[in-house]
Amino acid sequence: MVFSKTLVDNQVQPLQISTPDSEVLYAWHVVPIAKYIANEEYLLHERNFTAAQFADSVAFKLLSEDPIHGNAGTVAQGWRTDAYRSLSSGAPDKIHVLAMDYRGFGLSTGSPDEQGLITDGVATVQWAMDVARIPSERIVLVGQSLGTAVAVAVAEHFVRVSQIEFAGIVLVAPFSDLSTLLLTYSIKGLLPILSPLRPYPKLQRFFSDYLRDKWETSARIANLVRKSRKHTGVNEQAN
């Protein structure tokens, strides 16, 4: 199957990930190009698995044997396939990319909200660790724009609930929180959203109070750092 001119036949394998609240996420596994070349004959002649049958594929076997894993944003829109190729090119024989559509987007079920998107991110990482058996210390979370808030929330969830930490978090175009973003953001750099209200703090607070989703990334980063063993210098072997 060909999904993009930047990716080759069967380099992308679709899969489904179930969430704890019974949504089904559509996702892609992008095989590293060097691994693809080494296994091209098998991948090209592999039957067309459905997303639900991914665990039976050669691509899944390669993923479960290769303990370096990336987690990126949504799957097929615009430049994203170029981004997958760029991510994987950092180590083209090792770096796998797992990208999913949030609930309510693409082929995923459900409707999006802050807690739902965090649940989607947690479920995707949990799938990588439990099903593909990728250890957390070999997983890098990658997010862009809204995805940065999701990536931070997912990392904060795991360190807070399970004391699980990851190899790294990469944030591209992050924001501190949604309220602050709306006060400074302009659509395509031309059409401001709430910045004209800067001279009127009460009006700014009025509109901010009506935001359903807050995406308080700065606060989550602070909590993540506080609870991180790496940051506090706790030696795992000493516990």
Structural overview:
The protein has 239 residues and is of the alpha/beta class. The chain has 10 helices and 8 strands. The longest helix is centred in the middle third of the chain and has 17 residues. The termini are far apart. The N terminus and C terminus are likely disordered.
How large a portion of the residues is in β-strands, by DSSP E?
15-25%
> What overall geometry do the principal axes of the alpha carbons give?
globular
The residue-averaged pLDDT reads 80
Strand line-up of the largest beta sheet: 1-2-4-3-5-6
What is the H/E order? EEHHHEHEHEHEHEEHHH
> How many helix segments?
10
Helix content: 25-40%
- The strand count comes to 8
Straight-line distance between termini: 48 Å
Major beta sheet summary: 6 strands, mixed
Regions with little confidence, pLDDT below 50 for 5+ residues:
1-5, 67-73, 233-239
SS class:
alpha/beta
Q: Output the radius of gyration.
A: 19 Å
